[in-house]
Design goal:
It is built from seven helices and twelve strands. The chain has 262 residues and is α+β, with helices and mostly antiparallel strands. 29% of the residues are buried.
Length: 262
C-alpha cells in the first residue's frame, strides 16, 4: 500500500471563501482523495487557515479591530463553509495553534544552526505619518519591471515578478497614501542561493507541471536566487525565537512559517 498526504492551499483567515476558491484549490484535491480512498489507499488530507501576515493585519487596521478577532471569525466561517461543501479533510487546523508556533520556531533555529540565515541591517519602508515600519504589502507603487501601477511591495500582479518595497517606483503607504521613507532595521535573511542547484534539479523533474509555470520558475532560478528577509516588523505573528535586542518584538515572515502548516 502506498501512503499519501494531500494538502490544499491554506486560505488566509481574512475573509470568506467562495465558489471560485472551492473549484480551484479544494474540489480537485477532494476528488483525488476520494478516489484514493475508494482504491483502499492510506491517505491523509490536510488543510487549515493561514492566520498571520499582512492581509490579516491590514484588514484589522482598516476595520479598527484586533487581528485576533479577524482570524477567529474567519477561521470558523471558512471551516463551516468547507463542512457544508462536504470537502473531506482529515484534519483542518490553523496556524495560530501552539504546535505550529513551536515547529516553525524549530525550523528557524535549525536553519540558523546550519548556517543558512544571516542577520543584516537594511533599509525598510517607514511611514512618517503612521509612525510605523511598513511590511511589503503595506507599500504600493509602480513595478520597475513592467511599469504597472499600484503594485504591492511583494510581487507584481501583472508581470508576476517578485518585488521589494525599495525597488518600487514612487512607493507610498497603502494605509494613508503618503510617500514612504526608508530607515535601518535588523532582520534575518535566508541564503536562497544555498538551495539554488537543488531547486533547479527538482523543478526540471516536474514534468507534470504546466510548461509556462515550470519555465517561469526556472527563469527566476536562472536569474540567481537572492537573500530574502524571513522576519518582519510586525507585532502579529510568531515571535523570532532569539534573545536578541535587534529583533525584539519582530515576527517570522508568514511565507517562511506558513508552509510548515501543511
Amino acid at each position: 500500500m502506498v501512503r499519501y498526504m494531500v494538502t490544499s492551499a491554506l486560505p488566509y483567515a481574512n475573509g470568506p471563501i467562495h465558489a471560485g476558491h472551492l473549484a480551484g484549490a479544494y474540489l480537485p484535491a477532494d476528488i483525488f482523495v476520494r478516489y484514493l480512498r475508494l482504491k483502499g489507499e492510506e491517505v491523509l488530507f490536510v488543510c487549515g487557515t493561514d492566520e498571520h501576515g499582512t492581509p490579516i493585519t491590514f484588514r484589522a487596521l482598516k476595520e479598527g479591530r484586533s487581528a485576533r478577532e479577524i482570524v477567529d471569525e474567519f477561521h470558523e466561517h471558512i471551516k463551516t463553509t468547507f463542512e457544508r461543501a462536504k470537502i473531506s479533510f482529515d484534519y483542518f487546523g490553523r496556524t495560530e495553534l501552539p504546535v505550529h508556533y513551536r515547529v516553525s520556531q524549530e525550523f528557524f533555529l535549525k536553519a540558523l544552526e546550519n548556517g543558512h540565515l544571516v542577520k543584516k541591517v537594511s533599509k525598510q519602508a517607514y511611514c512618517e505619518h503612521d509612525k510605523m515600519f511598513l511590511p511589503d504589502r503595506y507599500v504600493i507603487g509602480t513595478c520597475p519591471y513592467c511599469g504597472a501601477e499600484n503594485q504591492r511591495g511583494d510581487q507584481c500582479e501583472v508581470c508576476g515578478h517578485p518585488l521589494t518595497p525599495e525597488i518600487l517606483i514612487n512607493p507610498r503607504c497603502n494605509i494613508c497614501g503618503n510617500p514612504v521613507t526608508f530607515k535601518d532595521s535588523a532582520h534575518y535573511y535566508i541564503h536562497m542561493g544555498d538551495f539554488q542547484e537543488r531547486l533547479k534539479e527538482w523543478v526540471e523533474k516536474q514534468e507534470h507541471w504546466k510548461p509556462n509555470v515550470r519555465n517561469t520558475v526556472l527563469g527566476w532560478i536562472k536569474e540567481g536566487l537572492e537573500e530574502r528577509a524571513i522576519t518582519r516588523d510586525l507585532d502579529w505573528g510568531i515571535p523570532v525565537p532569539l534573545d536578541d535586542e535587534d529583533v525584539k518584538g519582530k515576527v517570522l515572515y508568514v511565507w517562511f512559517e506558513a508552509p510548515v502548516g501543511y
